Structure formats: C-alpha cells, structure tokens
Amino acid sequence: MLVPNRHKSADDYRYGFQGQEKDDEIRGGEGNSLNYTFRMHDPRIGRFFATDPLESEFPWNSPYAFSENRVIDGLEFEGLEVVKTTTNNLNSVSKIIKANSGHIFEAVSASRNARAVHWWNHAKGHNNYWRSLKGATGEGIAASIIDANFARFGGSYVFTGGFNPDQTSGSDDGTWDFMINVATVKNMNNYDKKKGQFRPFEINLYDFDGDEVSFPWDGNDIEIQNIGNIKFEIKTFNPKNINANYYGIKKGFEQAIKNRAGGDVSILVLDRQAYLNVINGVSKERRGVLEDLYNTLQDDDKGGIWLINDLHQRANDAAGDIIRDIKNSKDVTD
Predict the structure, then answer these.
(1) pLDDT value of position 110
(2) What is the SS3 assignment for 272?
(3) Centroid of chain to Cα 126
(4) What does the alpha-carbon distance between residue 117 and residue 36 come to, in Å, rounded to a whole number?
(5) What's 70's DSSP letter?
(6) What whole-number distance in Å separates Cα of residue 327 and Cα of residue 165?
(7) Is the dihedral of CA 257, 261, 184, 151 positive or negative?
(8) Which of 18, 55, 120, 160 is least crowded, fewest Cβ atoms below 10 Å from its Cβ?
C-alpha cells in the first residue's frame, strides 16, 4: 500500500507496479488496485480479486496467486501466468522495437497485448503472440503513413495526437487506435481573402468500391480554426482470409461508427487488397451489409475508409525483423 503523498509517483501518472494501470476508485486509496488485462490485483496483499483464467492449466497453483508466488525472478503476465524474465530484458526489447520504428514503438507502448514482454515471450518461444504483435506493428506502420500524408500540409495546419492508451472493447466512444487533432492558422497558403474563409482541408480517402476520392472539410472566417479530431481504426488483415476478413471488416466498420461519437471524424484503415478481396468475393447479401455500414460511417462527411497497399505484408515483414533482432541480441537472455 502506498503512503498518501509520500511516494514519487505524480498524481497524473496512471501506472503503478510492473507498469499496470492504477484504479484508485476501487478499494479506496492510492495504488490499492491495479488493472491487469485479465483481472484486478490488490498489491497490499499480493493477490488478485478473481481466479486465474488459466487455473485448469496450473492445478498446482492457487488460482489467486500473484506471479505463481515468484516475485523475485518473475513478472506477472497480465493476470494469467508468471514470466521469468528481467527488467533488463524488457528494456532491451523496447530499445530494439524503437530502433526499428518510432511509430511501431508508440503503438506497442499503447497496446494491451503486444508489449515488450509479449515480444520477448514470442521471440524466446515461450508463447505465440504473432497475431497481436503483427497487429500492433500494422498500427505503427499505418500511423507513420497517416503522419506523412498530413505533414504535407505543414505551415498551414497544426497536427497533434497519438495512439489510444485505453483501447477498451465495448467502450461507448469506440476503440480507436490512432488519433490526430487538426487545427489551422490563417495565412496566405490556406486563407481565401476574397471569400473571407479558409480553403477546404482535404485528404484522399476511398469510396465503397475502393476508388480514391477527395475528402474535404469546409473552412470558416475565424483566425484559428479547430477542425477537430480524426480517429483511425486500424485493421491489419491477411488478404487471403476472405471469410474471416468479412467479419473483421464488419466489426471494424462498427467500431469506426462508434468512434464518430461527439462529432469526431472517423476513418477505418485497411489493407487495400484484403478489403477488395472481401467486397468482390463475398455474397451479394454480405456485400450489402458492408455497404450499409460504409454509408453510415461516411454520412455527413464524418467518416470514410483509407486503404493502404500491402499493409499486411509490410506489418508481417517489420514484425519479423523485430523478432529476428530480439533473437540475435546479446542483451536479451532466455
């Protein structure tokens, strides 16, 4: 238990022991409840509130035990099982990820199931987290492409944002992965003096059939225009899995529609070939379901889809490079 106001954690810092998010509204008091992915932990007694979801696989352990009672040489893996690694290992893995790509590192840091410990586990053959690792890598690659596209408006527009640190499934305001806040400053590059308003801000998105279209926001006559938030739901699907991708894209549309809450613009980002294979390869009925969802997302120019060529392959290659570097690093032990 933390002694109130007698520790080094800042009030606005959300994370506690082993990097897990604090929930001070439960159990009352600072640091009395930590939110692991699969169950809540009370660090005062070193036990979880709920039984281990994997208790049938570990019959020799108490279902409430923390880190299998190995708190010196192990880390608790998201409320599931002990991971016998070190802080030095995790720091080294993080450095390797960051060296490969800053955007991928940011995506991994915000992820709940593709953190450094997951990369270490996968690289060392302890568990298979490939799908999660590839997904977070795809989010990082997509974000870098998004940033590069918006950067061409530099000087006229101001962009701030980042990855969602709380991608909680079922949230009322969606589960966006990446967000950019767009504002513009009046200058000669983007302000029409004759009309007394900003020129439209435009990016290129895609219509339902996968053809590129212009996506504008109208200007107005104020000195600084806050265009608002653009939220991106990013899906890295293998183009070969048409049937599974239909359900994945359907869910992606549903999540992106939720991301419009509060008037924000919402964009669903997909592998271009994976999307085209689905809309051209499923039944007429299923295609109609997706088209209805697209129209809902795009309604009032508050959403759309962004298709990226070879997103899956690029994520696959980049994640593979990171795993290789972890395996070959002398600073990362088993």
Answers:
(1) 86
(2) helix
(3) 24
(4) 13
(5) -
(6) 28
(7) negative
(8) 160
Tokens of 204: 């290129």
- Going by C-alpha positions, the residue among 305, 304, 228, 215 that lies closest to residue 263 is 228
Query: Strands 178-185, 212-217: parallel, antiparallel or unpaired by DSSP?
Result: unpaired
Distance CA 302, CA 296 (A): 9
Positions of the chain with pLDDT lower than 50, given as ranges: 1-10, 168-172, 218-224
Instruction: Report the interhelical angle of 87-100 vs 311-328 (nearest 10°).
Output: 140
Alpha-carbon Rg of the chain, whole angstroms? 23
SS3 196: coil
Instruction: Specify whether the CB–CB gap between 176 and 164 falls below 8 A.
Output: yes
Residue-wise DSSP of 3-24: PTT-SS--TT--B-GGGPEE-T
Give the three-state DSSP class for 184.
Answer: strand
Q: Which residues contact 300 (CB under 8 A, 6 or more apart)?
A: none
Give the span between the Cα atoms of 181 and 228, in whole angstroms.
Answer: 6
User: Nearest 5°: phi and psi at 170?
Assistant: 90, 5
**Torsion-angle region of residue 210: left (phi > 0), alpha (psi -120 to 50) or beta?**
left
> Which residue matches tokens 């992820």?
111
Helix (H/G/I), strand (E/B), else coil: 92: helix
Cα dihedral 290, 173, 198, 185 sign: negative
* 113: Cβ contacts below 8 Å, ≥ 6 apart: 37, 78, 129, 132
Please report the pLDDT score of residue 166 as a whole number. 56
Q: How much is the pLDDT for 74? A: 62
The answer for 100, left when phi > 0, alpha when psi is -120 to 50, beta otherwise, is alpha
Q: Tell me the backbone φ, ψ of residue 271, rounded to 5 degrees.
A: -65, 125
Residues 305 and 275: beta-carbon distance below 8 Å: yes
CA-closest candidate to residue 201, choices 213, 183, 188: 183
